[in-house]
Amino acid sequence: MEEDAASKIRSDFLQVLRSRRRNPDVPLSVELGKPVTNPMYQGNTVLASRKVMESCPTENVVDFKDRLIEENLYLITEEGEQGRLPVLILSIKQSAPQRRPAVVFLHSSYKSKEWLRPLLEAYASRGYIAVSIDSRYHGERASSTTTYQDALVSAWKNGDTMPFIFDTVWDLIKLGDYLMQREDIDASKIGITGESLGGMHAWFAAAADTRYAVVVPIIGVQGFQWAIDNDQWQARVDSIKSVFEEACIDLGKSTIDKEVVKKVWDRIAPGLASQFDSPYTIPIIAPRPQLILNGAEDPRCPLAGVEIPYSRAVEAYKEANCPEKFKLIAEPGIGHEMTAAMVKEASDWFDKFLK
Which Pfam families match (predicted)? Predict the structure, then answer.
């Protein structure tokens, strides 16, 4: 019965994803790319230190730079400009061909795949195939410093795209198709993780696609409907405020309120605050190993809003006879911030379940 419920959620979610594709059935194809020397960072993004990522455990590899293999490519995931998915892959040249575990890394809002390079190099040094992409309207898929915000407003106005989370999840399913075909990747050992927006991408991609065998969403898991019901939506709304301001005007409101928030979610990510919210999608990742890393004081991912999905997931993993494969760590005193401790916990989790 539980498997049937999980299958229905996945089927319904895939139907929503397909509903706004220009052509969902384009053949998967690969184009060669080149290294990006000046990545696009949007908005008022302040590029913080990479010390947190640089703290990731690494293996001392002799002649690391000489042995490092960098691949830049594009996957065609659907018709149209945004259907060209930029992919960066790092790995270490091996003396003999062998299939290795892979981990997909997903950046936060307004950043790009290149920002994650310290993590990619650290995992590559430890024998992983390290993969990163530009999410929709980010990095190589952005033409200006307002591309992502403009796409969100357009989605509200026209209802023809889903730039917040869902369109990138479609890309991640297609990325899964590609990774499964590679001769250097163990198809049973593909992990996925990300920070903030990337954490949401990892969560939903793993819920939708069981080929992602291990998942570690970092400062991404939250309860969207819970936030509306408990007047805790402000911090999340502020992170992409322009679309809510536009909706407020269109709805004849003087200020953003919970009705505006609900209508925006329903328009730009149908089901995000209902049947695909965390109480329903976090548990269906079972029995695959899942580690949720949040800050205990995170206003965008309030810990109280994770209580229901957490308790349901605990039950799901118990029923699957693998309670040890699910864990939530809420770091005390930490807000919406990825920490060195989180990077280490994620690394240990992947080593435990993918190596």
Answer: Peptidase_S9 (PF00326)
pLDDT in tens, 159-200: 999 999 999 999 999 999 999 999 999 999 999 999 999 999
User: What is the CA 7 to chain-centroid distance, rounded?
Assistant: 21
Residue closest to 56 by CA, chosen among 132, 116, 131, 135? 116
| Per-residue pLDDT, 46 | 67
Residue 3 phi/psi, 5° resolution?
A: -65, -40
| Amino acid, res. 148 | Y
Q: What is the pLDDT of residue 1?
A: 46
Low-confidence ranges of the chain (pLDDT < 70): 1, 45-46
How do beta strands 290-295 and 185-195 pair? unpaired
Closest CA to 28 of 94, 88, 73, 68: 73
Instruction: Pull the structure tokens for residue 97.
Output: 């061909």
331 forms bridges with which residues in the sheet?
Answer: 295
- Length of the chain equals 355
Q: Give the pair of three-digit tokens for residue 23.
A: 């052509």
DSSP 76: E
Q: DSSP of 335-346, one letter per residue?
A: -S---HHHHHHH
Residue 226 lies in a domain: no
Structure tokens at 228: 């509306």
Q: Is 213 a domain residue?
A: yes
Q: What is the pLDDT of residue 170?
A: 98
What's the total number of domains in the chain?
Answer: 1
Distance between CA atoms of residues 308 and 325, nearest Å: 18
- Joined together, the tokens standing for residue 79 give 């018709």
Per-residue pLDDT tens digits for 68-97: 999 999 999 999 999 999 999 999 999 888
Q: Is the pTM of this model over 0.85?
A: yes
CA distances from 46 to 41, 49, 247, 352 (A): 9, 10, 27, 34
Does the N-terminal peptide bond of residue 302 adopt cis geometry, omega within 30 degrees of 0? no
Enclosing domain of residue 87: 2-221+269-354
CATH label of the domain that carries residue 6: 3.40.50.1820
Give domain status of residue 243, yes or no: no
* 126 occurs within a structural domain: yes
